[in-house]
Amino acid sequence: MMLNYYTLNTSTPALPAELYAWRSAIANLFREQSGWHNHDPDTGRSIHRYPVVQYKLLQNKLGIVALESEIEPMLELIKALPRTFWINNAPKRLDFQRLERHEFQFQVLAKPAVYQCDNWLPMNSEQFQAYSALCRAENLNPGNRQIEYPSLLLYFQQLLSEQIRWHLRGFGCEGIAEQLELTLLSEQLLHHQTTYHRGLQISMMKGVKIVLNINWPLHLGMGTGAAIGYGMLKKTP
Fold it and tell me: pLDDT (tens digit, 9 = 90+) per residue, 114-147?
């Protein structure tokens, strides 16, 4: 399946901690466009789907990645620039740099590729409870920063596989999702608490190295937090 998407680059330097406020600032311009904030405009409830608009750091500057369905709001935003937004209580001038269209073909690879991710948010509260129960069954502390016990590594391998399958199905790639094969190469994962939104503390995984038999668009995230820059896969030799 072919996936078309756009990257919008600005010339505004930023830090990862500013991405949630960046998303909020832009989403306020498009309250009626659910893709820009993943909430139902009428009820305010979250929409559980793969985020079609993702707020990123592109070359360490504020940027947006959006699927082709969102090109009209994207063009509206470009017309409104330059503009000053308040990001974490500080003014930031946003200057448009460039807009690029990308065509990506999902496919099963004859030779699997190696990817690495250093900002994966793997677990929601329900999954964390399952992980904690697994730790207790092995007499392990779920708060340990280093994860290297085989059954725990297998848990995260299965969790990541299911997340990517869910994303593929959301793209309409049912056949490819069924053929997905993922192996966790990491013998140790590192996790630490990070603030996601409104003081919510969650675990972020580093050192995630996998072998995957499908190709993945490197501008798009996976897992929790993909809308604000988490879950970025990088190809490694």
Answer: 999 999 988 777 787 888 899 999 999 888 888 9
Structural domain boundaries in the chain: 2-104, 108-236
Amino acid at 76: E
Q: Are 168 and 176 in contact (CB under 8 A)?
A: yes
What are the tens digits of pLDDT across the range 86-118? 998 899 999 999 999 999 999 999 999 999 999
Number of Cβ within a 10 Å radius of residue 37: 21
Read off the pTM: 0.89
Which residues does the chain have with pLDDT short of 50? none
One fold for 2-104 and 108-236: yes
CB 159 within 8 A of CB 203: no
Residue pair 96/80 in contact (Cβ under 8 Å)? The answer is no
Q: Yes or no: is domain 2-104 CATH 3.30.70? A: yes
Selecting from 3.40.50.720, 2.20.130.10, 3.30.70.1900, 3.30.420.10, what CATH number does the domain 108-236 have? 3.30.70.1900
What 184-187 contacts at long range (C-beta under 8 Å, 24+ apart), as own/partner pairs, is: 184/153, 184/154, 184/156, 184/157, 184/160, 184/208, 184/209, 184/210, 185/114, 185/209, 185/210, 185/211, 186/153, 186/210, 187/148, 187/153
- Given a contact cutoff of 8 angstroms between Cβ atoms, the answer to whether 5 and 102 are in contact is yes
